[in-house]
Amino acid sequence: MRTDRDLSPEPREMGRRRFMIAGEHVILRAFEREDAERCYRWMNDPNVVRTLKSRYPIAFQNEIEWLDRAMHPSQNERHFAIERRDDRTHIGNASIHDIDWISRTGWFGLFIGDPTAWNRGFGGDAISTLIRFAFDEMNLVKMRINIFDYNERAKHVLEERGFVSEGTLARDFYREGSYHDIVIYSIFREKP
Ligand SMILES: CC(C)(COP(=O)(O)OP(=O)(O)OC[C@H]1O[C@@H](n2cnc3c(N)ncnc32)[C@H](O)[C@@H]1OP(=O)(O)O)[C@@H](O)C(=O)NCCC(=O)NCCS
Fold first, then answer.
1. Nearest residue to 112 via CA among 135, 89, 131
2. pLDDT tens-place string over residues 136-165
3. Can you give the pTM of this predicted structure?
4. Which residues of 77-89 are buried (b: 16+ CB within 10 A; e: fewer)?
5. Are 115 and 153 in contact, with CB atoms under 8 Å apart?
């Protein structure tokens, strides 16, 4: 069973890591133009977007424009492609956004784009890796994510990694004919 200790830095020898941002099962890398087709497919897959805020079908051109922005991020955001560490296939996307560089807080979001790759440890490892990077390299001190109340899988993954539910926005999101609560999960670099 995983614990929130997974988020603490592993002892590692500087300069001997193989990838810039590496977890146990995934690496996080910069986006490339060639990722557009996969991102387009995932962002139009109802199984994937069901637990994301995206509502409308996305045109390929919009996806290319999003990727362009992701490759040239503003000061308060960073975007990453999630790859499997074993075969280097691109399996999902992750973002840190709305960074407040004074308070040193940020929001994040991510998805594993191919539902057949769910429940195999990739999403959880991607979260641990992203948060570790945010704390150890970007020097952020608190990270948070919005989760729809019906996203039991995400809630489980986050709670296993030491995230706590900090509050609920009641009936804040309309999806599939009814309103849903949004739960804010957060984690601190150091326990308050
Ligand atoms: C949420 C998401 C990132 C999780 O990725 P994943 O690769 O499936 O996660 P993992 O395999 O690391 O872990 C899944 C865990 O959830 C558990 N789980 C699966 N379905 C569940 C359910 N309905 N209720 C509770 N737990 C559930 C699994 O048993 C597993 O637990 P374990 O680690 O104790 O064995 C992925 O499902 C996804 O991309 N969903 C769509 C986008 C999304 O919801 N993003 C929200 C951001 S967190």
1. 89
2. 999 999 999 999 999 999 999 999 999 999
3. 0.92
4. bbbbbbbbbeeee
5. no
Q: Which residues contact 161 (CB under 8 A, 6 or more apart)?
A: 2, 4, 6, 7, 124, 127, 128, 131, 187
How far, in Å, CA of 128 to CA of 112, rounded?
14
**List of residues 6+ apart from 17 with CB closer than 8 A:** none
Residue type, 64: I
- Greatest Cα pair distance in the chain: 52
Class of domain 4-140: alpha beta
Hey, whose CA ends up nearest to atom 37 of ligand 1? 118
Ligand 1: residue of 53, 119, 129 to mutate (most ligand atoms within 8 A of CB) is: 119
Q: Using alpha carbons, list the distances in angstroms from residue 183 to 24, 66, 72, 144.
A: 28, 26, 30, 10
Distance CA 49, CA 101 (A): 29
Q: What single DSSP character describes residue 49?
A: H
